[in-house]
Amino acid sequence: MAKSGIQIGRVSEQTGLSVDAIRFYEKQRLLDHPPRTEGGFRLFNVKDVQRIQFIRRAQQLGFSLPEIRELLVLQRDEGETCSHVRDLLQAKVKTVTEKIHELGALQDQLTSVPAVDRLKMVLWQEGFTTDVCEIEVRDESAAKTLKFFGSPTIRVNGLDIEADSRNVTETGLACRRYSGGLPSEEMIRTALKKAREQ
Q1: What is the pTM of this model?
Q2: 65 lies in the same domain as 137
Q3: Residues 117 and 184: beta-carbon distance below 8 Å
Q4: pLDDT digits over 24-79, tens only?
Q5: CB-based contact 108:186 (threshold 8 Å)
């Protein structure tokens, strides 16, 4: 009687992994040894395919093979898991969440509105009708004279919008990083609010 199941070539097509990768997972004890046909072909079932897809996703998220093995134990035992496996999962979820946050911040920086345009937008939103004075700083002596900390430097009524930078004495022409990257709209709004109060 012929055994039923999915042969490794078909599993490869369904998962997007090479046959060698699937065999590697088996050698690493991430998969149970599948039954074989009389001709020696491996026969996988739907749960095997789902497990392979889980392994692949976990690797893409940065889990190591030993960590994935422990996660598979967690998945299999449903509640009868060791606390260290749960701790591992929580730590990895935290790491992934932090990476997502960092990538989001990077995306904001790469696709963000230039600082001067952001300033103009906030001024308009807050009802200010003042002009923005853009000064091009070309050399170190100009930077020193203007107390220019780096590009971009935004001041409202002569005060840097980042309060922590008001006591900085170093000047220069390098790119400037505000806390969190580029100056945020909230940082600009806070500086404008303080300027209105004076």
Answers
A1: 0.45
A2: no
A3: no
A4: 998 988 888 888 888 888 888 888 899 999 999 888 888 888 888 888 877 766 55
A5: no
